[in-house]
């Protein structure tokens, strides 16, 4: 295995498994090992040129993973930011990060965020989103070769990522000038932007993929959005009233944070404000994808994680299984979003009682989403579906490996 220099911040991983992933075998290896290498090589033709998997931690505990080639410079152009869920850490995405680098060793650098870990995940979506935004800026400053950016969030991490991209979003002024053709009218600009002709950048980079796994986009209040409560209104009411137990995050998830006539944060996050362009930042990505557990997820319901109304959910018994991705049972391609209707959030005042869930879904579906439904029926790990979907720990959640591979195989580079 090629040696690499390690400073006080750099971590070196050695082991038989990693060696097989990042180094071509010698001619004297046994036939059994050669067969394994040939099988691995089919997954990525670049694996034969692997030199070393470099894992580097920064001052904040975040983890950067990239492939370092011997005898040549390493200049990945695409940054993938992976964000953990509540009480999670950077280690939750370790398996998926390695699979990314197997598939795209020369193109990617994967950063597993650590700024919002453990008890810090109780601080609120807005606070965590700001922290993630600052973390992303710092990572980019350390990797000047990157030109593109993607986000992958699990559970609460999907909401944190949505807030962070709004903080990092800037309209592409160069593209704006080319679109206007000398027309200085603001009406023309607004019309072009609403039709998606003018794109923006995220932290100065080209936005590519925005992907979430089992994220409660509609919140966790009412309508069986937390399957653990079995649809009990009594339990749902108790959960909403005790949401403070999870700090500001709990109030945001259960939509109990609205005060002085202001809507809850999750409702604010479905429209642009003066300083935070929540929907414009989402629209700037080439792909937006939600992976959702159709069943067995006791934390986040199918409706809230797939951005559907309950009557829009497909029938589970009619969902087929494939051989390559046995737990991916349904894929809905992105449809062109309708932009003619203004989200009702603009009409809210302190005295009106509205269907918060409906207004959130109306706002978020102003942009198109790919929906991928996951079903762990028959799996021994189905009761852990909420973390199996991301392969939180390979020893306990390995059945989700095909779901992770589905994401990687469809990833835009």
Task: Give an overview in words.
Helix 3 packs across helix 16 and helix 4 packs across helix 5. Residues 1-48, 184-190, 235-239 and 339-353 have low confidence and may be disordered. Strands 1-2-3-5-4-6-9-10-12-11 form a ten-stranded mixed sheet, sandwiched between helices. The chain has a two-stranded antiparallel ribbon with strand order 7-8. It has helices at residues 16-22, 31-43, 94-103, 125-142, 156-168, 173-180, 186-194, 233-241, 247-253, 265-268, 278-283, 302-306, 356-364, 385-388, 394-397, 401-409, and strands at residues 10-12, 52-57, 63-68, 78-83, 108-112, 148-154, 169-171, 200-202, 206-213, 287-293, 328-332, 370-374. It is of the alpha/beta class. The protein is 33% helix and 15% strand. It has 16 helices and twelve strands.
């Amino acid at each position: 295995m090629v040696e690499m220099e390690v400073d006080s911040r750099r971590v070196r991983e050695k082991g038989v498994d990693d060696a097989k992933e990042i180094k071509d075998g010698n001619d004297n290896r046994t036939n059994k090992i050669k067969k394994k290498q040939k099988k691995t090589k089919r997954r990525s033709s670049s694996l034969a040129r692997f030199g070393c998997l470099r894992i580097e931690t920064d001052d904040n505990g975040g983890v950067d993973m990239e492939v370092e080639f011997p005898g040549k410079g390493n200049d990945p152009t695409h940054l993938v930011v992976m964000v953990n869920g509540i009480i999670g850490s950077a280690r939750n995405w370790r398996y998926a990060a390695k699979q990314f680098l197997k598939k795209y060793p020369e193109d990617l650098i994967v950063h597993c965020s650590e700024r919002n870990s453990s008890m810090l995940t109780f601080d609120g979506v807005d606070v965590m989103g700001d922290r993630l935004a600052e973390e992303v800026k710092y990572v980019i400053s350390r990797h000047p070769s990157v030109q593109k950016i993607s986000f992958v969030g699990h559970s609460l991490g999907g909401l944190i990522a949505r807030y962070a991209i709004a903080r990092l979003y800037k309209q592409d002024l160069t593209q704006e000038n080319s679109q206007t053709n000398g027309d200085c009218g603001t009406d023309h600009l607004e019309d072009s932007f609403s039709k998606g002709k003018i794109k923006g950048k995220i932290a100065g980079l080209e936005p590519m993929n925005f992907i979430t796994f089992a994220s409660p986009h509609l919140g966790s209040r009412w309508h069986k959005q937390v399957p653990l409560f079995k649809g009990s209104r009594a339990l749902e009411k108790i959960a909403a009233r005790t949401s403070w137990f999870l700090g500001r995050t709990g109030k945001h998830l259960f939509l109990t944070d609205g005060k002085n006539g202001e809507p809850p944060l999750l409702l604010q996050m479905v429209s642009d404000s003066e300083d935070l362009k929540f929907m414009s930042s989402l629209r700037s990505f080439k792909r937006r994808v939600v992976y959702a557990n159709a069943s067995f997820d006791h934390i986040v319901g199918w409706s809230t994680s797939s951005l559907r109304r309950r009557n829009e959910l497909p029938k589970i018994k009619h969902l087929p299984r494939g051989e390559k991705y046995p737990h991916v049972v349904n894929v809905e391609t992105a449809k062109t979003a309708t932009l003619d209707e203004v989200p009702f959030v603009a009409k809210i005042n302190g005295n009106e009682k509205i269907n918060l869930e409906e207004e959130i879904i109306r706002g978020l579906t102003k942009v198109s989403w790919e929906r991928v439904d996951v079903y762990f029926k028959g799996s021994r790990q189905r009761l852990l579906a909420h973390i199996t979907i991301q392969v939180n720990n390979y020893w306990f959640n390995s059945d989700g490996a095909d779901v992770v591979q589905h994401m990687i195989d469809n990833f835009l580079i």
